Amino acid sequence: RVLEAIREYGNKNTKFYQASTSELYGMVQQVPQTEKTPFYPRSPYAIAKLYAYWITVNYRESYDIHASNGILFNHESPRRGPEFVTRKIVLGMIRTHLGLQDILELGNLTARRDWGHAKDYVEAMWMMLQTDKPDDYVCSTGVSHSVKDLCEYTFSSLGLDFRDYVIVDEKHFRPEELENLKGDSSKLINTTGWSHDYT
User: Fold this and answer.
1) Taking a C-beta distance cutoff of 8 angstroms, is the pair 183, 114 a contact?
2) Confidence at residue 123, expressed as pLDDT on a 0 to 100 scale
């Protein structure tokens, strides 16, 4: 509807940003993932996002609209909901440390994600819209860590061994797991000058 409104009423100053996701890659075909990596979505959410990605490309090419897709990898902030694994681990660590719960149940600890900060990624979104020519861009840190790595790092900040508190329960596994999401933002960096400080 938004793209159709732009087509009908917009002008050359109208710009559209589509929030795409690394979940488009799903069962990854290559590591790291770039704008040329084939998509293989593995969830209803990712499949819906695939439609949004391609309708944005279609309107851009058909109607000369400044419409860009940002394929953002995991971006975190203090506003992240407790149902997401990053926040779940932090809250679980605090609650076990305070004696409010005995264990933290998690799913697949070997799954790897490319985690960045939402503040940096919002800056990247804005920079995509400042380009003369619209395009599609991967936005990521280029570094992936496992859920186990995140547990170890988080619990060690309080001098704790995560293995004393974390147990794996298969009920938390995804029906179709995303094993190794890791992006390559070279195109975004070379085109816009975007940068980040992650290692």
Assistant:
1) yes
2) 97
